[in-house]
Amino acid sequence: MPLSQRFGDLMAAYRISQRSLARVLGLSAPMLSQLINAQRIKIGNPAVYERFVMLEERQDEPDLQRVLDEVQASEPVLTTHSARSRRLEAGPVPGADPAAQVGRLATAEQLRATAEAARAADAAELAALLDRAAAAHG
Q: Which SUPFAM superfamilies does the UniProt entry name for this protein (predicted)?
């Protein structure tokens, strides 16, 4: 099923707007719009995707507002590629640029998506760090 239809089904099931769905997922409203309109073809942030799946799985529960609140507050932890795990185990490099260190943890697309979520949460300094890390990827 296309993402646009899946997002539409969620907005209908939870009776929420596109902006509200973006907030629950941890995406910016423009990024969600791009996904709905097929200007983007995948959700790059694993935590956002996990929240999306949680909403799909729980849409038949009786208290939908509680589901929305719980999913929005969730901090999914997903297992990622083993090479990334090895980079994480290596730890920070003393004296290295924090953006460069963060850049070792994710792809440029994931960093940009996380920066958008940080901006949405009014974490401008974190968003700027993530933007610098994404830019370093090229």
A: lambda repressor-like DNA-binding domains (SSF47413)
The tens digit of pLDDT for each residue in 38-54 reads: 888 888 888 899 999 99
pLDDT at residue 81, rounded to an integer: 44
Q: Do the beta carbons of residue 44 and residue 112 sit within 8 Å?
A: yes
User: Which value, to the nearest 10 degrees, does the dihedral of the CA atoms of residues 54, 125, 33, 37 take?
Assistant: -100
- pLDDT of 2 > 60? The answer is yes
Which amino acid belongs to residue 99? A
| Tokens (6 digits) for 28 | 């910016």
- The type of residue at 40 is R
Pick the residue with more confidence: 134 or 88? 134
- Three-state secondary structure string covering 62-111: CCHHHHHHHHHHCCCCCCCCHHHHHHHHHCCCCCCCHHHHHHCCCCHHHH
In the block, tokens 């694993």 appear at 46
